[in-house]
# Entry
Amino acid sequence: MTILTFLLSASAVAVVLLGLYFLMFPDSIVGLTRRWMKRGIMVNLLLFVLGIAGILIGAAHEVMAAEPIAAGGGEIGLGLGLALIGIGLPTGLATIGAGIAVSSVGSASLAVITEKPEMFGRTLIYLGLAEGIAIYGLVVSILLLGRI
# Structure
């Protein structure tokens, strides 16, 4: 499993270095075709997915092979597990909703600012309102966590 982690880290570093190379020498991209770029991205994505799957399988194998922890207070029952999932859902869903809202409000605010720069303050208020959705989800999760 250490080898998989190393290979994934090395591939991530290679992608970053390749991106920096293309950033510093943009003329070298001219000779590359779209087909070559698509194949490179697909191979990188496939290797990444296979590596993550290998790490997950290896981690599950190590956990299953480990000695059980001393019998006693470390267990979480089904009810508590479902409650913890229910507590995490508001934060996750609110964050996704806030991301969608910020993306649309952000692009619209950039369009407005290019035409009327004096609207900058108003657009910041709208972005803050959209980001508040994630904060509401976090507050709900904290309140629910206090109930357990």
Summary: The mean pLDDT is 82. The chain has two domains: 2-65, 78-146.
